[in-house]
Amino acid sequence: MDVYNQANSIIRENKNNLDIITANATDQDIIYAENRLSVTFPAEYKQFLNDYGFLIYGGMAIKGLNHEALDSDSTFNIVWVTETERAEGLPSNYLILEESGMGEWYVLDVYSERVELIDEASYELVDEPEESYNSFSAYFYKKVKEEDEIDS
Fold first, then answer.
1. pLDDT digits (tens, 9 = 90+) for 57-72
2. pTM
3. Domains present along the chain, CATH in parentheses
4. What does DSSP assign to residue 134?
5. Contact 15, 150 (CB under 8 A)
6. What is the sign of the dihedral through the CA atoms of 132, 137, 138 and 141?
7. Which of 121, 127, 114, 73 is nearest to 99 (CA)?
8. What sign for the dihedral angle of Cα 99, 105, 106, 110?
9. Which of 61, 91, 93, 94 shows the shortest CA–CA distance to 77?
């Protein structure tokens, strides 16, 4: 079983950690968001959007799309947050996934498909190798697993 499916299994087994259930994003929603942001989302992130829309699980909040509020100025809307930060200088290949709570953001680099930790003021990479992920699935699994361990 791949790490994305392992993360899904943990979530299904611990539904009490699931804070918000939203309408998952449709393929049309994803195309709309990709066009607005002038990017192509990696396949793993598209799967997440199809499965969840966006996700609040324990203390983790991964930004995404809400089918019923695609144009909202919600802090959970990846389009709105990313466009807002691009206006301030966020590189166009980054999508903001999650706030670290320490003045940093986890971003999905659509060119490399890696998830990296960046400083939210300078948009520079933070030198913390343990917070750099080869894929969205690796990031998703680690964050879900951490939340599961906190709750145990």
1. 888 889 989 766 666 6
2. 0.90
3. 3-151 (3.40.1580.10)
4. S
5. no
6. positive
7. 121
8. positive
9. 61
